[in-house]
Amino acid sequence: MSTPVKARSLNDWLVLLEGLNMAHIELGLTRMQTVAERLNLLSLPSYVITVGGTNGKGTTCALLEAMLSAGGVSVGVYSSPHLVDYRERVRIKGHSPAAAHFCAAFAEVEAARGDIALTYFEFTTLAALWLFRDAAPEVVLLEVGLGGRLDATNVVASDQSVITTIALDHTDWLGDNRESVGFEKAGIFRAANAAVCGDAKPPASLLAYAEQLATPLYCTGRDYQWQVQGDAWSFRGLGLDLEQLPLPSLPVMNAATALATLALSPFTLSKEAILTGLSQAQLNGRLQQLSPNLWIDVAHNAESATYLATQLSKLKGERRCIAVVGMLKDKDIAASLAPLQPLVDTWYLASLAGPRGASASELAGYQAGGEFDSVIAALTAAQHHADEHDMIIVFGSFFTVADVLAHFQRL
Fold this sequence. Notes:
Layout: H1 10-18, H2 30-38, E1 47-52, H3 57-70, E2 75-78, E3 90-92, H4 99-113, H5 120-135, E4 139-143, E5 160-163, H6 171-174, H7 178-185, E6 195-197, H8 204-213, E7 217-219, E8 224-229, E9 232-237, E10 240-246, H9 252-263, H10 271-280, E11 288-291, E12 294-296, H11 302-316, E13 321-325, H12 333-337, E14 346-350, H13 360-364, E15 370-372, H14 375-385, E16 391-395, H15 398-410
């Protein structure tokens, strides 16, 4: 007999949701819209900014959150996936809600859906929207899960849209070319509501969709410019002219996208708030340093791996670089490993569990290295053979990084 709804713990709910078999459900927003309407979630009492793109969604949200918060604006953030704790997916005023609040939200969604089948992401997105409606922060940042046009977050009436970058990923769902991907990402645009694109070469499909909807679209390089100058950077355009900005720990291109988004919003921040936010913004799993010689990064496609390689080349110097990598088999493994191959001296290949996980032997088909049955086994071996002058980078998937973070928490 199943646990009564009101008696379920957060773990009970997550086990239930993760056990759902959604293989028969087709893509589309009809189910999501129906349940959201029942819960009065199609429009939130907050200023909503929806953030899509191939890479940089989470970091752009983190930068927006940090700058707005530094300016005294209350912010809610929805992001995915989480790394260690499910509650990471929702932040309100800098903190994740208590487990009991998540349980209350899940119970409301369960009661409202009736006999409508929902995917894990649809169910949990509705719960997040319920939490935001209940807390009513001034701004809600919604990170798109997959694509945009058919993503569960797209049922919400948003006030602004952001596209970070357009690259190939999830090709089975979004298409195998940038024009197809661009069209799917542009699905979050709204007529007459401002949108920002941080991709230097947006595909024609994205530009055409914005024109068709009469969406005012502001693009990097055309409507605003940014430039790194030594250990600082500058931003110009959209009414802002900022010099000597501190380099954030997150990618500068995403910081520029975030600044452009703020410039088009109704929130006016002081330069002090902007500087504070840029200096304080951080996000777990993005070139995060765990020890003097160990870094982790969620890079899992060609674009993010290229950026990681650029950053590692600055850190490496004369040191030996050791890589621990675990990936999902539905990613472009060859293209994701290629940018790091000139930098890495020794490879430790880890199998990822689950039906989507690539085995170490599958990775070895693209890059020779030691083969291990888990990320932690590979990391342990790498640490054993590394000396104090070496650097170790763990990358390839959110799951890979999550395993390492959970391991460090246990220690």
